[in-house]
Each structure stands twice: as structure tokens, then as C-alpha cells.
Write a structure and sequence with these properties.
191 residues; alpha+beta; Nucleoside Triphosphate Pyrophosphohydrolase; 4 helices; globular
Length: 191
């Protein structure tokens, strides 16, 4: 499944770090253990419209292959902070160097998602960040986890997620998760 020495940070139901408690990805996904994940939603404004950068997950991914998802995201390693994990994942997945002060914390949420056509369970406590880009950034996809990137108008994305419209399949993070994201986007776009 992955590196046998890799351990993901475990959290309790309130989102509190369980100090020195980690589990292998296989144990986390097969037993549905609550673990941490950092999510970075990248956005920009083009011609007065807010756009969000979406990644299309690689077809080789164990969970949610070929689905559209967060700009850059990943599991928090044992002993790692959510912020450091966010910075690391942006670098690993899309080759983007971010300064900690450029990220805006949007909120956090725990939730379970059964992965279709498998016995795997994603039970994540997600730390959600937003990042505004004001220039043309060249991303590179080096780690094989991301198939492609696409900028999507936020209103189109909202409609597609809320109504199930469009051909795109989005990872189903749930209405509470997307409320946190879209409410944060309203706030940061007004700053």
C-alpha cells in the first residue's frame, strides 16, 4: 500500500492531537482510524471572477482515482503539524513553495467517507487552508499522485458540487466541509 515505516498522525473525535500516536496508512484506511489531513485550496481572481485550482487525482490512486479534489492535500505524518504538512504537500504534489504566512486557516472538520468499490474508510480530521495566487504560476506534477490541474470558476464548482451537475466527479467531502470552504472563500475574497 505504501512505505511500511510511514505513520499518519492520529486525532481524537474533538480534533485533538493524540501525542505520539500514529498508524500505518493500511491500518488507518482499513480500520477507519481518525487521522489528520491538511488541505490547501488555491484561488485567484481573473476578470473579476474567483477561480479555484482543482487537481484531478491520478488513476493509480487507491482512493478516489480520477476525481477532482483539493489543490494540494495530504495526510499529516506522525509528529508533524497541520501547517507543516500543508507546506510539504503543496511542494510534493504541485511543486509550489509556500510561506506559512501566505496560508489562511479556514477551519477544520472531522468526517468519515466510505470509499466506493472497496472496504476502505477515509476518517479524516481535516485542517483547511486557502492560498491566493496573484501571478501566473507554473506547477509541475512530479509525484504521480496528480493527473492534471484545472482552474474552475467558484460558482460553477459550487453548483456542480451542490447539485451533482456536470461531468466532473468531486471527492465527496460533505456539505459541512464545503460550507467551511465556501464561507472562507467569501471572507478572503473580500479582504
Amino acid at each position: 500500500m505504501s512505505n511500511p515505516d510511514e505513520l499518519w498522525q492520529l486525532y481524537d473525535e474533538q480534533g485533538n492531537l493524540m501525542v505520539d500516536k500514529g498508524a500505518t496508512p493500511e491500518n488507518v484506511l482499513t480500520k477507519g482510524l481518525l487521522h489528520g489531513a491538511s488541505h490547501v485550496w488555491i484561488w485567484r481572481v481573473v476578470d473579476g471572477k474567483t477561480q479555484i485550482l482543482l487537481q484531478k487525482r491520478a488513476s493509480s490512486k487507491l482512493t478516489w482515482p480520477n476525481y477532482y479534489d483539493i489543490s494540494a492535500a495530504g495526510h499529516i505524518d506522525l509528529g508533524e503539524t497541520p501547517l507543516i504538512a500543508a507546506l510539504r504537500e503543496a511542494k510534493e504534489e504541485i511543486n509550489l513553495d509556500i510561506k506559512p504566512e501566505d496560508l489562511k486557516f479556514a477551519g477544520s472538520r472531522g468526517g468519515r467517507i466510505a470509499v466506493p468499490d472497496s472496504e476502505l474508510i477515509e476518517n479524516e480530521f481535516c485542517f483547511i487552508y486557502t492560498l491566493r495566487l496573484d501571478d501566473e504560476t507554473n506547477f509541475s506534477l512530479n509525484d504521480g499522485e496528480v493527473d492534471s490541474l484545472v482552474w474552475k470558476d467558484i460558482e460553477t464548482m459550487k453548483t456542480e458540487i451542490q447539485n451533482g451537475n456536470g461531468d466532473e466527479k468531486y471527492v465527496p467531502h460533505g456539505s459541512t466541509y464545503f460550507s467551511i470552504l465556501f464561507d472562507a472563500m467569501v471572507k478572503v475574497t473580500k479582504e
